[in-house]
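Action item from last week, closing it out:
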Amino acid sequence: HSEHLPLWEQEILHIMSDKTDKRKSKDAELLKENKQLKKELARKEKALAEAAALLVLRKKLNAIWGESGDE
């Protein structure tokens, strides 16, 4: 059995190396996806802020026109 130990050790190291490579690849993939999602979120937050600002302006404009129309 002792003659098999070096072979087993090499096999284990190879398997661990493969898992490490796969994990690094998966980590890189997740980082890329995270970056894309953050970019999309920032874009949507800007659009939401713009829509909210337009809504506030519309309400103010309606309030002003409503007051001037009553006079």
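Closing note: The two ends are 103 Å apart (CA to CA).
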